[in-house]
């Protein structure tokens, strides 16, 4: 084990976002937004 | 290649190696060498994770994939952002809290020593062999087109990586990967702009893209549910999720990247950055493949993209047969080009009827050209029985060599070699770390000094580098390289993921149950590989499911259930 490692700070908030859950929701929503845009491109050019 | 290309290529590679060695010289302890003193900011971690995943094959194969099969390959990455979120919630806090050097250390805390050794051994076998293929794969493509010596290219790429990875450890890997990613981002954007500028000006990009779309190259999202179809939204979300979870969560070459974070926050942000950028990154690379496809609608493509092989065929008795095919291919191309120009003008005028008629004619001509290409492959097989008849990996590199201006060729080759180096360095770094921490220190040299372990790590990293170069010499015996890497990963990832899934989520199962289940799962996966027709990508899910299922059965019915403390 790495005994010199800094103490883990599990409770630290992420930058910009209110909480980790908000950030996770943002990442997932960005994925589905991308899929939606890709779908529009697929439809438009097919 | 012109002197300016050699200067750009040589200068870029020399800069990376010298910078890596200089910036990280004098690593003083094992913590600094294996975890980069755990002071990396999130963006360095994110870039490092992306650089580890992006190998030379990403740049050589992916544009060819889009050229041939359209952009639907991108769906393979749809599960990745979800996996990054799961890893941030579950894996990262546990690894940080336990202050581990390797992912497999956690298995001893949760289960026992034998399970840790099993996890480490499965990783070492799989990743050790894969490292050889990672070096060999770009070498075979580059040597085939540029006439370089294959063994010398393997040794050259391997030695460059060994120099800075052995010297600076994890810190050198992360520091150089920042620059390698900058070269990759810059190179791919430049390549995209260049290809775009080569399209005929009077056609218009939107009309050209409509042609690509109607020829199924912009099929980015496909909803058909078919278990035999590798790339659709369902396999991407589900299969891609499991693959990303096992690769980023249990493969030390990735785990080591986010263990370098100065806090849980930095590690999480690094993973989430990868989750947000990976899909746009792959989109650009695939889109370049589509642009090259469009370019070859107006400029004659070769009958076979590996033109060195083509030249060799002309030296054989099959030369005349091949020339006839080439002539017919040219005639079909000329007809198709006229139709394509007509098609784009119909599309511009929104004349749907005319457009549909011309589209049908173009598709028929395209099918005839494809049939000729298959015939050409058959002739190549007869003329040169040992030649690779798959030319998809040569589409992008052959375009670079033929059409890119001086200087840009050198930069794009530097991009491909940077990608080869970035993934190989992470692999060697992780192999050296796992051998030192999980095998050597844990079993053979428990109470040695920090300096001793530092030196041991360097030697193990060097030894794995030498092994990878040696294995690369034999990789030519493998039929298909990309497939070989994927098969190798799929044979072991499922079992390792299953062990970690049980560790995290089924708290009442103990070490002996999961150990036996993992052995059974691995044997079952090997049985499936050798004796069944199951597609190898399914092994990830099968291995994981068998470990979870069998360990539950063993624990419930044969071993006294022991409540294990969660870490």
Topology:
The complex is a heterodimer of chains A (46) and B (567).
Chain A: H1 20-45
Chain B: H1 3-23, H2 30-35, H3 42-53, H4 56-69, H5 80-89, H6 91-98, H7 103-110, H8 113-146, H9 150-198, H10 205-214, H11 233-250, H12 252-259, H13 264-298, H14 307-314, H15 319-348, H16 352-383, H17 395-403, H18 408-444, H19 450-474, H20 481-505, H21 511-531, H22 539-557
Helix pairs in contact in B: 1-9, 1-18, 3-9, 3-12, 3-13, 3-18, 4-13, 4-18, 5-11, 5-13, 7-8, 8-9, 8-18, 8-19, 8-20, 9-13, 9-18, 9-19, 10-13, 10-15, 11-12, 11-20, 12-18, 15-16, 18-19, 20-21, 20-22, 21-22
From the structure above, extract its key features.
heterodimer; A: 46 residues; mainly alpha; 1 helix; rod-shaped; B: 567 residues; 22 helices; disordered C terminus
Residue stretches of chain A low in confidence (pLDDT < 50, at least 5 long) are: none
H/I helix tally of chain B:
22
Helix content of chain B: over 70%
Kindly state the number of beta strands of chain A: 0
Indicate the proportion of strand residues of chain B.
under 5%
What is the ordering of alpha helices and beta strands of chain A? H
Task: Outline the biggest β-sheet of chain A.
Answer: none
Order of helices and strands of chain B: HHHHHHHHHHHHHHHHHHHHHH
Biggest interface, chains and residues, is:
A-B, 29 and 43 residues
Q: Helix/strand/pairing class of chain B, anyone?
A: mainly alpha
The chain-level mean pLDDT of chain A equals 83
Indicate the radius of gyration of chain A in whole angstroms: 18 Å
Number of strands of chain B: 0
**Structural shape of chain A:** rod-shaped
